[in-house]
Amino acid sequence: MKPINWLRLVFATMLAASALFPPQALAQVPGRFYWKNLSGGNALPLIYNSMSGNTNPFDPSHTVSPGGSVDATLAMAGYAHTFTLADRSAMAAVIFPMGRISGQVTAAGNAFNQSASGFGDPTLEFNLNVLGPPAQKNIPDALRYEPGVSIDLLADLALPVGEYDSSKPLNIGQNRWYGRLGMPTIFQIGPWVPGRRTTLEFLPAVWLFGDNDDYVGQTMETDPLFQLDAHLTRDFTSRAWGSLDASWYSGGQATINGVQGEKLNNLGIGFTFGYTVNDSLNLTFGYKSTINDTGPGDLRMDSFMVTLVYGWHPLIEGFKRLEDE
Amino acid sequence: MKTEMRHAMRVIVRKKLQSLLGMLGLVAAVIVPAMAYAEDAPRRPNIVIILADDMGFADMGSFGSEIKTPNLDSLAKAGTRFTNFYTHASCSPTRSMLLSGVDTHLNGLGNMNEWIAPNQAGVPGYEGNLNNRVVTMPQLLKGAGYHTYMVGKWHMGKAPDQIPAARGFERDFSLLDGGGSYWDMTNITAAVPKSLFTEDGRYLTKLPEDYYATKTYTDKLIGFIDANRGDGKPFFAYVAHQAPHDPYHLPRDWRNRHPGEYDKGWDQVRQERLKRQVEMGIMPAGTELAERMWFVPDPIVLAPASRYILGKKMELYAGMVENMDFHVGRLIDHLKKIGEYENTIFIFFGDNGAEGTDLFGMIAGSPGSRDNLYAAITWSQTHPNAWGDPGSWVGYGPMWAQVSMTPFSQFKGQLAEGGIRNALIVSGPNVKRPAGSINDGLMHVADLMPTLLEVAGTSYPKASQPDLPPLIGKSWGPVLAGKADSVRTEQDYLAWEVFGNRAVRQGDWKLRWQLKPYGKSDWELFNLAKDPAERNDLAAQNPDKLKAMLVAWESYVKANNVILPSRGPYDTLEKDMPQRVTVHPGFPPLIYQRQFVPPKEMLADPKP
Predict the structure, then answer these.
(1) From the candidates B88, B105, B147, B155, which is the catalytic residue?
(2) ipTM more than 0.85?
(3) How do residues B291-310 score in pLDDT, each as one tens digit?
């Protein structure tokens, strides 16, 4: 394959993989999310989620409603841009969640059977690599990229401007500030050759939540939630890959008007299949579900997810124009 | 009737007798010296010939390279470097002369097995393998009381009577093919998908565990040496490394030792190597670089991606050379450890010029062809990060081959200096020249036969076997002893022919006839003392010299039954390759222009 074609494939795979995915859905992102690519790249992710469980999937604290039953359709659109900061790879992004939610939940001792729809809380994300290969400032850098052992610092901040109805417990927006600090880590296993790449990836993170002082007329406080995501990813071909995913949640105890809820201590597992359609388009399909969820206070949620990510880089676009001449 | 029968019987008996006597003569030539030298063997030196495959003149640190070759350089430091040493332009012809001392057109490699032309087929001397009319160096050294070992690439025949064990090697671990994977038995084409290996004369059904060619060859040789150490006999080891022949298969930790170093491009690396060569005394001051091949771009016009990809190929090649050097070092260390180093002659050189032809493209480059489909399964690990792995095929192309052959013109397969001149190092007890010295005497690979027979205290059995073809080489004895600077006079000549290309070297002069587009399809004349890069054809200005050298050429043709091939790899090259033009440095100015920066004080915004 010609160098430029390899570049395109590398770019397409990595840009698509590292574009935004929904942090809300099980508060988990697919594997390969934090692979790096050529500085100056852009991506538009379009994500579709179909979820059910006993918690509001738009709320990353996953406050459980014992005996509740919630169905949600969540879509997200976003924009991400990669750049170089102090010779390190960096990414800045914004995500706009939207969707519908309906179900029966209990809040403040009252049962609600309701639905909601609209736009959620936009989230800003910033990610900076601190250990691993230097930023890909040019094409040779991009072609040389191998993550080896790569560690990033990650920060998310959700802005409380989404649709919110204080009379209802199920909302698309969360009416409070929240965010995440994490440390995405990649271990490359074996050669970095499209078709043969294998990685073990971890994302230890802490979610921090402000208070929602108008949660069905009450105040909701939520303790920090520790989350550990793990992914074992493997190429099937140069364009297709799959991963086994797992997430562990601990903490996140919600207190509503002084009444404490349960701490989370749950495990979810799933899988993802990814395919690079062409230079600009990447597709994934995944399913995840909690597994230790038989107790009434256990988090129970499952989710189908389809993502379509469109990525572009001025250089790749230029090559295309030249070829079309 | 009875008379006729009696006559026929007599003829048969005479023929059988002659055949028997001939065999006895050969056996005697082999056995008698063995008996004679059995007692004094320890006094004679061991001999190690290390042959690199497709390695260039300028690829060792001691010949001006940035490639790190500390072990080969240590041999150069202890011994002598030779800068006017010639091989043939391709693999098996060189090897055949090395082991037989006889010209290719008589020893069976009048053409490479892969390219025997219709008018050469069936003619003695053009068998495509080392024929049975020659006696080999290992046969004679074995007869002289040496253990004879071979590891590595053979490429001179695959039939049972053609393999190393049948040609004088007592122990061997050999790749019979001309190339293939370094990791397994995968070969290059759909027609011959599996490489053949022999070990001690048996064809292997599989390779040893943990096989990697360069490492395994070294391991095996060390094992051979150790197995017979106790008997006090000297050994002759022919270490025919496959490295650095493409594909550049290389253990992972050897692949990234020059990251980005070659992104600067081939022109700059050539200039840097030449500068070091001049500083070292490898090339005389004032030496010019050969012109960049007309179809190779100035790297200045390349995009960073292309520079990276092409540079990385050179990184791999450098790794191949360094890995081979490492294993040469293992052998040296082992000989030191067992106390044999001081009594060992080392001879190191490459078998021909560096490879500038896209061998893989030639074989598998046509989509839908048989070999293309084979390559899709077996040779399709094309991502740069897979280079070096099984299933990858990387060759570095003509641009880097020219770097490897700095400062010479062209590369493997051609009879320009870049095809046939190689770096030679000789060290050991027989080398009495100053340690680390450089010699520019005219040397030839076929000289090894008489040289090493002399070292072993034996001789070529021409007297007892008059049918043997004559040796064409001369012993290096006087040069190694420091008693002469060259074994050749101004009248002695060397000559070559392969693929229809021809050349003669006599003194400082070289006569060359190369097919278009690499040559003019006509005779060209160069003065190599003044013009080692063969930039200036002096044929028209020196008709007398041209005529005199043509006489030498005709003499060579006659003596060696040279048959120019009716077909060959150049058949359509002139049409297939870009039209040849002269490459002038700095032309066209268009690509060397820079953005003009006006004086600051004259800058202004547009007026309203």
Answers:
(1) B155
(2) no
(3) 999 999 999 999 888 899 99
